[in-house]
Amino acid sequence: MRYSFDSFVLNTRARTLHHHNEILLCDERIVLLLGLLIEAYPDHCQQADLLKQIWPNTVVSNWSIARLISDSRKFFLFAGLHPPLIETLRGRGYRLSHEIGASLVKLEDENLDSVNLVDRDSSAIKENWIEPSSTVLVLPEAEPSTSTKNSRHYKKTTVTRILLSLFGAVLTIFSLVFALDLRWPNEPSKLVINEPHDVKARILWVDDHPENNEIERKELLAKKFGVYLTKTTQDAMTLLSLYRYDAIITDMGREDDPLAGLKFIKMVRQQSLSTPIFLYTIMPSQALQTTVLNEGGHGVATTSESLYQLLDNLAY
User: Fold this and answer.
1) For the Response regulatory domain, which residue ranges apply (predicted)?
2) pTM exceeds 0.70 for this model
């Protein structure tokens, strides 16, 4: 099937992605992931189902799908897609964003037009077909001369060389762009401040995808919590050196580091700061709970309700 959204066209059967009628080169798993989310929309896809569909007969960790989601977001953002692509539903899975879903258009399969065209041409041929006479003169096919063979070989060789040169140039340009993207300094993350008038407590929330926590943030604001959002560990440490917060919330994986949350907790404690720290993640385990407590954290929350309960239990 083919689907159109924004200026992109996704072909789930051919597993291709076009942007402004030009094909985009990307990881095939990104195309497969997007196809699964589109076909499930407006429902969500569970994490276990995505792992089974994208990595069949392969044992991979839950971090694989989280990394693929992150790579997909970055790929489409770099390609010029400004609305958010994928929503994270904590404890449930992932869903195509409503902005993309609203612009989603199911296109007719191009193959259908091709088949109809062939059928029409075949009918026309049959209508104009003249039965040959019983006597048919068949002339032997002339053997091409040596010069003709050499000319054809030269043309094929020249075309092949040109195509290989163009392909090499494209790969070189793509590699340079990718290298510059890795080396170019990222834009500094902006601190987002949301604080009610009669604030009860101030919370520093560290997460490289704050859009995933929008519902929780609104609920905390309703509970009279001031929420300060930042995306990087470095910015969070700077803010902690300048201001006082009543609690800290951090995600687990951040900036391509699956252990960023634990390292952040350790860094805070090394600065002799006693601010309560809570880890908010979708993959709980008893071992993780124990590790967080040993590093100086105050608890692990896997749902919004458990997070609210941990914060409400603090004495401000």
Assistant:
1) 202-316
2) no
**Pair of tokens at residue 249:** 């919330």
Q: What angle do CA 177, 178, 181 make, to 5 degrees?
A: 85
Is residue 261 classed as helix, strand or coil in its secondary structure?
helix
Per-residue pLDDT tens over the stretch 48-72: 999 999 998 888 777 788 889 888 9
Whether residue 44 contacts residue 33, with contact meaning beta carbons closer than 8 Å, is answered with no
* DSSP code for 249: E
Specify which residues 277 forms β-bridges with. 248
Within 8 A by CB and 6+ apart from 33, the residues are 50, 54, 68, 69, 72
Q: Compute the distance between CA of residue 252 and CA of residue 282 in angstroms, rounded to an integer.
A: 9
More confident residue, 228 or 194: 228
User: Which positions ≥6 away from 281 have C-beta within 8 Å?
Assistant: 251, 252, 261, 288, 300, 301, 302
pLDDT of residue 205: 94
The helix, strand and coil proportions of the chain, stated in percent and rounded to the nearest 5, come to 50, 15, 35
Domain ranges of the chain: 2-106, 192-312
- In this predicted structure, the answer to whether residue 2 has a pLDDT above a threshold of 80 is yes
One CATH from 3.40.50.150, 3.40.50.2300, 3.30.2020.10, 2.40.30.10 for 192-312? 3.40.50.2300
φ and ψ at 271, to 5 degrees? -90, 10
d(CA 118, CA 112): 10
∠ CA 219-290-269, rounded to 5°: 75
Which amino acid does the sequence have at 141?
A: E
In contact, 269 and 240? CB cutoff 8 Å: no
CATH classification code of 2-106: 1.10.10.10
Please state, in angstroms and rounded to a whole number, the distance separating the CA atoms of residues 251 and 264. Answer: 10
